[in-house]
Amino acid sequence: MAAAERQDEAERSSIKEAARARLRRHDVGGRFSGLPLPKASVLLPLMVRGGELCLLLTVRSMQLRSSPGEVCFPGGKSEAEDKDEIDTALREAKEEVGLQPEEVEVICRLVPGIDKRNHLVTPVVGFIEDTFQATPNPDEVSDVFVVPLEYFIKPLNYMTLPYKTSSGHSGRMHCFTYDDHEHKMSFKIWGLTAHFAVFLALVIFGRRPTFEVDYDLDNLISSAVQNFMNLYASIYERKKSNL
Ligand SMILES: CCCCCCCCCCCCCC(=O)SCCNC(=O)CCNC(=O)[C@H](O)C(C)(C)COP(=O)(O)OP(=O)(O)OC[C@H]1O[C@@H](n2cnc3c(N)ncnc32)[C@H](O)[C@@H]1OP(=O)(O)O
Ligand SMILES: [Mg+2]
Which ligand minimizes its atom distance to the CA of 57? Predict the structure, then answer.
């Protein structure tokens, strides 16, 4: 290995090691697995490219019934054979973008979210190689792209919108526009996908973003759990009153 290559490799390892340590401190493991909601998982695939952490995202096929054309992470609904949320994320990533489970170094599960169909969605964070070549399944995925993770705390094109769920929970919705100059494409990342990307960037960088967020940044994990529990409680109360 040439000296320059060795230096790149050393830099890559130290970026990954620092991120691993922070991620492990925010691992929720199976803490939310027993909640009585239908389950889904997404994989947040991290790689080091050009000396910085980047996230791989997908654009949903226009043929899908749910959320066609929206940006999301590889992922989907849990199936009976899945052992846990990690299994679901890895199975879905393989089906959607051709990522083999052995190509992923799984690090942790983060605080879940709830989608508009009331699925409990668990984000699973894993490292992949930056040489990974996606093979999108055209039935489900129309595009795959990569965004520097730092964009989710320091965006160039950002908007916030208030949101309120049908169960009455309210908060901020982040909307990013990312211009991929290399591929001359522009992507809109918002809703649940943006929510997970921002949380991941806050965990890893531990810095204040250039926009407002619904967290206490000195108590990131407990405020994230609190926000989630408030949302969950609003859905649960509504379910009970519909019985
Ligand atoms: C405080 C806590 C915070 C909470 C949030 C705050 C943020 C604010 C949020 C507010 C706004 C919240 C709202 C927003 O954020 S909307 C904003 C932008 N959108 C998003 O953020 C996307 C969010 N959604 C997702 O990530 C996914 O939908 C999740 C992961 C939830 C489910 O995964 P997914 O949907 O990917 O499931 P799947 O992969 O199992 O299946 C997909 C479909 O594909 C069909 N299919 C499968 N195979 C094939 C095949 N071979 N040929 C043809 N079809 C095939 C299959 O039958 C299924 O169809 P259907 O059954 O769906 O019709
Ligand atoms: Mg999916």
Answer: 1
